[in-house]
Specification:
250 residues, mainly alpha, 2 domains
């Protein structure tokens, strides 16, 4: 039999060891707390992503608003540019018609049965020229081409022939018939060297050659405008356009 004293000693020793074992074993985390912390971290990441998406959406909205504003401004500029071009064309046409009326022989009347053709059916060469010019001003380019060609066939020696040749080239140019435009502009200087339209025709020949991608020819033509007519408005425009032509043709 174990003495009472020894039994008490063993119980005390066992209790002490049990307490020491409990203190050395780390406490296990609460699973619920772990899950809550994980959910909280995920929610934080989602919230961060949502903030980024919201900022991106706001930026896209701002860009779209700017694009709408720019499109509106562009349309206004295009409309204004079209109006200015039409006004300029009308003013130029009116001035050209007034100057043409002052040229000698511009008002000669065509007699009956003179065989002048469709371009001079009544009223003589001035009337035929005016009808062609009116068609050009009203942007009826096919009619303008027909009328100017008829005029040149009917009145090849007219004081207005150089002008008609130039405006025929313009009608071809605005309809993107660059081959006929180039030939017509070139003919102004070749057939009507005394015409006041020669500098402008040579300039438009250079611009037409640019549209034809004949940059080497275009540079030579524009330089010719500057050399032959250094004090003209055509020379100033040629110099400005020449600076924008690429140095090398590809």
């Amino acid at each position: 039999m174990m003495s009472p004293l020894l039994r008490r000693w063993l119980c005390l020793a066992i209790s002490t060891l049990a307490l020491a074992g409990c203190e050395s074993t780390p406490a296990q985390p609460d699973p619920t707390v772990v899950k809550l912390n994980d959910v909280d971290e995920r929610l934080g990441r989602v919230e961060h992503v949502n903030q980024g998406l919201m900022q991106l959406s706001q930026r896209l909205d701002a860009i779209e608003a700017q694009m709408r504003q720019l499109r509106g401004e562009l349309e206004e500029l295009q409309n204004s540019n079209d109006m200015l071009r039409k006004q300029q064309r009308d003013l130029y046409a009116d001035l050209d018609r007034r100057l043409s009326a002052l040229q000698p022989g511009a008002k000669s009347a065509a007699g009956p049965g003179d065989g002048s053709g469709a371009g001079a059916d009544s009223g003589g060469e001035q009337a035929a020229y005016t009808r062609a010019f009116d068609a050009l001003k009203s942007t009826d380019y096919p009619s303008a081409i027909t009328r100017f060609r008829d005029f040149l066939r009917s009145y090849p020696q007219s004081q207005l022939a150089g002008n008609a040749q130039y405006w025929l080239g313009e009608a071809y140019y605005v309809t993107h018939d660059y081959d006929n435009a180039a030939a017509t502009f070139r003919a102004v200087g070749e057939q009507y060297p005394q015409s006041p339209k020669v500098p402008d025709a040579l300039l438009k020949l250079g611009l037409t050659q640019i549209d034809q991608k004949k940059l080497t020819d275009a540079r030579a033509t524009l330089k010719q405008v500057m050399q032959r007519f250094p004090n003209s408005d055509a020379a100033k425009l040629a110099a400005a356009r020449l600076q924008n032509i690429p140095a090398d043709e590809h």
